[in-house]
Structure formats: C-alpha cells, structure tokens
Prior knowledge:
Bacterial polysaccharide co-polymerase-like, 65% helix, rod-shaped
Amino acid sequence: xxDLLAILAEQKRLILLITVAFTVLSxxxxxxxxxxxxxxxxxxxxxQSSSLSTALSAQLGDLGGVAALAGGSLSLKNPNDxxxxxLTSRTVQDAMVTDFGLMAEYHTHYLSDARKTFQRYATVDxxxxxxxxxISVEDRNPxxxxxxxxxxxxxxxxxxxxxAITEASQxxxxxxxxxxxxxxxxxxxxxxxxxxxxxxxxxxxxSQARALIESVESLRAQITAKEVQLQAMQTYATGxxxxxxxxxxxxxxxxxxxxxxxxxxxxxxxxxIVPKGQVPEASLEYxxxxxxxxxxxxxxxxxARQFEIAKLDEAREGAIIQVVDKAIxxxxxxxxxRSLIVAVSTALGFLLGILVALVKASVENMKSHEExxxxxxxxxxxxxxxxx
Length: 388
C-alpha cells in the first residue's frame, strides 16, 4: 500500500492533468448539449360508479322490457391500461405529429419516423399507486413542451368522442342508435297513416276496437323490447344463464298473450289484429296503418326513456378524462444535467489518471531490471522486424 501511495504521489501531476482534462472536456460538452425541458400533465381516469338505471328503470313499468339491459354489467377491467393504450395509440400520436408540425421539427421525411422520434420524448404512465395517469413530454422549448403535453389530452378527447368507453356511454350509444331507427320507422308509419286518411277519409273507430288495437300494439312493443334485451344479453351471457332463461320465458308468455288477442309480431302485412266483424270492411286499411303508428310510438317511448337514463348516467360519470394538473412551461431544464456530467467525468478522469500512473510506474520498474529490459527489447525488435 505504501508503494502504491508513493507511486501516486510521484505521479500526482499526471493524475491531476488527466483529471483536469476530463473535467474541462465534460464542461465543454455539457455546455454544447442543447437544453431540454420536460412538461408534465396529470390525468384522472373515469371512476366506475353505481348506475342510475336501477332507480330510474322502475318508472318504465311493464313497458320497460329493456330496463334489465341498462343494469347489465359492462364494467371495464384495468381502465388505466386501456387509457394509456389509447393515449399512446397511432391515431393520437399521428395527430400530434400533424397538428404540431413535428416532421419539420424532427427533420424527418416520413410520418412514421416522426412518430418514433416523438415516442422517445413522450412518456405516458398509468401504473402508479395513486391511480392517476402521468404524461411527460420533453422538448427544447419549455412552452412547446407544455403545449405538447396538453395536446395529448386534446387529441385523446377527440378520439374518445367517437368511441363508447364507459358503461354509460356504451348504453347511451346503443339506445341512441335504436332510437334513431325507431324514429324513422315512426315517421314512415305516420306518413302512411296520413296518406290513408287522405285516401279514405278520417275514420273514427269505436272504443272497443281502439282499446283492442292499443292492447295488441302494447304487447308487440313489449315483445320487441324483450327481443332487444335478449340480443344484448347474448354478448355476455350463455343460453343457460338464469336471467337469460327467465327473460326468454317472459318473451314466450307475451307471445302467447298476443296470439290469444289474434295479433301478430309481423309488420303491416300481418293478419288483422281485430276480428273483421268488429271493424267495417272499408276501415281495414286504416286499422293497419293505425296499428303500425301505435306500435312504433310505444317502441319509441321505451327507447327514449332508456336513452335519457343512459345520458344521465353518462353525465354523472363526468368527463372521460379529467385533468388534475395541466402542463405548464417548466422553469428548469430537465437535461442535460451538467453538474452530474461534470462530476461523473471528473471521477472517471481521476480513476483513469491513477490507472495511467500505475501502468507508467510498472513499465519504468520493468525497465530498471536488466533481464526484464532485455526481454522487452527483444519483444520490441520482433515487432519491428514483423512490420518491416
């Protein structure tokens, strides 16, 4: 140990020179490296909440055959992972590249290259114990870094506007589509009834025939609602599911009641829903048209109520993504860490200086021995001879 310390003391100038050289070089390099800033945004994913459907669907009574669908379980597992996947999707990142002109910023000729470069500077993490999603974007301009981080949220909201993500939004989208179809069918039925009235004149039905029509069309509407419910249940339940079996039994009972009244599930081409003796022969066409209008009115009413329930649930859940911390321009750079670079480089220079000093002392020590010096000379000559 004393010999080593003595060697280091003798070679202190060499060690110091190498250490200073590494320090100066690291300072120059760290100053030449462009400063980069990291902006961060924190998001709160939607929380799964209890549905309003259970309370409100009771208002539908027997006509709410699709009420059970509203309470169906469409819960999402690991929502953070799904939202992180959407935030880092190609659609969102390509929109970021296009909207912020990142192809010119990164000096790339292809959208895919700009996307890959952007992925190196952007991080989306939703695996923290706090249950939040953290977005970090690095850029040379602090203001631009904040704009990119906030732009991530904007692009995600644009994407999610076209997707049904939460349970309520899935139900809302389903009933919205069904309601639009029922609206068109009702409009067509009303137009057909209007044309029939203009053709045959307004026909007043007696109260018994009108009540029979309304009863049959109410049953037809309930049957259609049960069929919609069964169709939706098939997406998450098998034919042996108790709820599915019970719903199927209710559907069979409704069909049996409709058959007793002489009605049919078919459209306007079906058999007449009342006996011919109860309605004059001239009124048959009017009855058919009125039957269709009452049927589609009932369907429209059921779907409209379910649609409003889904909208209330969706509003209760709030925004798809809520911003906890909006990204602001950082006041300190995130890289390069100049002090760390200088400290590490100085330590490496010091260690390299010690290594060089020990190697130099070892070579000089070998030269001081005659036998070792002779061997080194022979080795040098052999290398010189091979080169010549």
